[in-house]
Amino acid sequence: MIHKNSGSVKIWWGFLKTAILALLIYILFNTVLNDQQIEKIIIKPGYTWTGVVGGFLAFSAAIFAIFINWMTTDFGDYLHWKKVDRFYKRAFILPVILNLITLMLVIATIVYEAITLTKITFAMLIYSVVNLISLVMNAYDLLNLHQSFRKIKITEVALMVSQNNGDPSGN
Asked: What pTM was estimated for this model as a whole?
């Protein structure tokens, strides 16, 4: 028997796997690079990082806006009926928040040039990249779900038209 909250457990497990992967990548880089090398990677090209993270933020915000737009359609009703709307809402808002925090950290790192802040920013940059990959995969899954939904709707309309002698209104 499947527990009724198993869906939310899978969602949180997905978020946790992304964070664990980012942490492992950070640990790998942190063992290979010393503090000065990390500073050189983050602080010197700091303004470039603001552009990169700003791009991540814009991309993730655009995906979230598309999702919000779809939630006002029949497809949004379908997602709600299938009880997956909450998953996608979290999956699309988290990267926006994460990239906003990362952008603020990059700016603070450029200004203060503190090693601890630089390491935190480095970790968040890695997490942002890993999360962006996850965002693209979630968006791809949602797009496939949307295409399946459209096929179902087209089939339903065609069936209704054929049952009503070519009149889609049913009159």
From this structure: 0.84
